């Protein structure tokens, strides 16, 4: 088609309005309070109602449009969901017929999942073609695919009609292997996805089922203290927890919300993502209800929890409202809790005055869990799923999945789904195949020399001093840490460790191990030290 459709124009994206304002969020944050629906009118301006319906698109043009729609969709859909359900032939533009955009997919199961994301698909079409279309999705295993594309009737049969007694049919309701595996993958992706829009407090996430270890005990202790005594009456009227994704920040948020509600049922608790906070503010601007939005947070909320506060970066209008709300609540002695994947100072695009306020309270981090914590998490989650796992399987998963508790739990959900759907027992070789794991014996071997070297680098004390007879406090403490780690990670005897560290008696190593173990339960900073050295190994 080379006629009415301004194909080159949409590829060049020459519409100045679309270049200046890509979404309503940008509009709100630029303080343009006019009716945001003018955007849609401007986007539609280059096209008339018949420009895409009167002519036939060539295969090359459809491919080009399909690629542009996918490029837009990638920014709107979780990357894992996109890779599993949209990428390649999973989701492809087949035709544009009048007001319909017709897409194909591979199976009915994937079709049903894609249909849960129609808003994102519709937005991608508008971003690409400048107008909205009715979306129609057809599975390739549907015999009427070609008729849907051509909008033609089903051809009538010319054979002689048969009587009811002559008619028989069979219906195959057994899902194919591909559909079964897709169901398994779907359960895993739904769990590991970090989309938490429209948060409702999860009653199942409590302190009791939060697995504690050296990596998170300080964040846990602070959260428990807040749940017992929130606001200015407590120790931490403002708490900021940061860590990589999937390490338990959101679980702690829900646990605190549940704990506060149990202790103070009359408190108004607001648990929301930064993205939803921004959307709510934009909606209030659209409806000319910004004062009501401010009053809701400033006057009614007793506990404000904002997940992923780094999402406010670059949003000047939202940051301005957040700043005033923060000040109001802090001055009134309300409880403020935030989570992020970075420290406040590391968030680029955040106003300096907001960074400063986020650091007014306690700032704690959560590290990657150590091997013992990962094993404990696996066993706890397996109990929740009523899943029996042998010790070999637990160790295999714990040694391979290290970076995220969410992925760790997701692996068990995937195993449980695979076992239920495929009706097989969970065995070691099956686990390796389903999760793509390797034998944990292949892990890098941790040696006493390596532990001594990393401990030396952390404390900035030469290895020779660790092995010496010196009893200087700093050297002795570093030596105790090294001995403790040797017992924990290298599975060496007390005699072997004592011999390495200056020919000491085994009782010296026992004393060091007991002293560090006792201090770990009382000193969060020591826990962090142990974790840092352990991760470096």
Rg calculated over all Cα atoms:
29 Å
Output the strand order for the largest sheet.
5-6-7-4-8
Classify the secondary structure makeup into a structural class: alpha/beta
Q: What is the straight-line distance between the termini?
A: 61 Å
Range of helix content: 40-55%
Overall pLDDT confidence: 78
**Main beta sheet strand tally, sense and closure:** 5 strands, parallel
Unreliable spans are 6-55, 142-173, 191-198
Number of helices: 26
Q: How would the global form be characterised?
A: globular
- Care to count the β-strands? 8
- Percentage of residues in strands: 5-15%
Structure description:
This protein is an alpha/beta fold and about 525 residues long. It has 26 helices and 8 strands. It has helices at about 5-10, 15-20, 25-30, 40-45, 60-75, 80-85, 110-115, 120-130, 145-150, 175-190, 215-230, 250-265, 275-285, 290-300, 315-330, 350-360, 370-385, 390-400, 405-420, 430-435, 450-460, 465, 475-490, 495-500, 505-520, 525-535, and strands at about 90-95, 100-105, 135-140, 240, 270-275, 305, 335-340, 360-365. The strands form 2 sheets. Strands 5-6-7-4-8 form a 5-stranded parallel β-sheet, sandwiched between helices. Strand 1 and strand 2 form a beta hairpin. Helix 13 crosses helix 14 (about 290-300) and helix 17 (about 370-385) crosses helix 18. About 30% of the residues are buried. Residues about 5-55, about 140-175 and about 190-200 have low confidence and may be disordered.
């Amino acid at each position: 088609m080379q006629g009415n459709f301004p194909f080159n124009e949409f590829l060049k994206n020459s519409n100045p309005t679309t270049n200046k304002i890509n979404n309503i969020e940008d509009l709100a944050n630029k303080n343009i309070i006019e009716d945001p629906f003018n955007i849609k009118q401007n986007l539609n301006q280059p096209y008339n109602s018949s420009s895409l319906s009167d002519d036939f698109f060539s295969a090359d043009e459809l491919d080009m449009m399909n690629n542009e729609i996918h490029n837009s969709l990638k920014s709107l859909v979780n990357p894992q969901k996109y890779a599993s359900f949209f990428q390649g032939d999973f989701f492809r533009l087949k035709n544009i017929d009048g007001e319909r955009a017709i897409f194909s997919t591979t199976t009915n199961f994937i079709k049903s999942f894609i249909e849960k994301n129609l808003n994102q698909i519709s937005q991608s079409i508008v971003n690409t073609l400048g107008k909205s279309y009715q979306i129609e999705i057809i599975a390739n295993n549907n015999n009427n695919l070609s008729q849907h594309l051509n909008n033609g009737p089903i051809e009538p049969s010319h054979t002689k009609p048969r009587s009811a007694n002559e008619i028989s049919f069979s219906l195959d309701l057994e899902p194919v292997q591909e559909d079964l595996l897709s169901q398994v993958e779907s359960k895993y992706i739904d769990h590991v996805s970090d989309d938490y829009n429209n948060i409702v407090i999860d009653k199942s996430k409590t302190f009791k089922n939060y697995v504690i270890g050296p990596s998170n005990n300080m964040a846990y202790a602070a959260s428990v203290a807040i749940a017992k005594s929130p606001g200015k009456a407590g120790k931490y009227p403002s708490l900021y927890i940061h860590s990589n994704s999937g390490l338990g920040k959101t679980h702690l948020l829900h646990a605190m919300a549940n704990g506060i509600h149990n202790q103070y049922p009359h408190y108004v608790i607001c648990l929301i993502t930064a993205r939803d906070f921004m959307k709510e503010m934009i909606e209030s601007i659209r409806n000319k209800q910004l004062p009501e939005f401010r009053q809701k947070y400033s006057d009614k909320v007793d506990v404000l929890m904002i997940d992923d506060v780094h999402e406010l970066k670059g949003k000047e209008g939202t940051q301005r409202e957040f700043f005033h709300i923060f000040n109001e609540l802090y001055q009134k002695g309300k409880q403020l809790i935030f989570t992020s994947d970075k420290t406040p100072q590391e968030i680029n695009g955040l106003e300096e005055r907001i960074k400063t306020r986020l650091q007014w309270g306690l700032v704690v981090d959560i590290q990657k869990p150590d091997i013992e914590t990962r094993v404990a998490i696996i066993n706890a989650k397996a109990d929740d799923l009523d899943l029996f796992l042998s010790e070999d399987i637990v160790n295999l998963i714990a040694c391979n999945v290290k970076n995220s508790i969410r992925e760790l739990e997701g692996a068990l959900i995937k195993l449980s789904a695979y076992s239920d759907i495929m009706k097989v027992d969970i065995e070691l070789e099956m686990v390796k195949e389903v999760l793509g794991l390797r034998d944990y014996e292949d892990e890098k071997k941790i040696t006493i020399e390596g532990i001594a070297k990393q401990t030396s680098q952390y404390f900035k004390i030469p290895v020779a001093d660790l092995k010496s007879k010196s009893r200087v406090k700093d050297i002795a403490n570093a030596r105790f840490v090294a001995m403790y780690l040797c017992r924990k990670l290298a599975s060496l005897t007390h005699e072997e460790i004592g011999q390495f560290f200056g020919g000491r008696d085994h009782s010296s190593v026992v004393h060091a191990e007991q002293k560090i173990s006792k201090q770990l339960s009382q000193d969060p900073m020591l826990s962090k030290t142990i974790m840092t050295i352990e991760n470096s190994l």
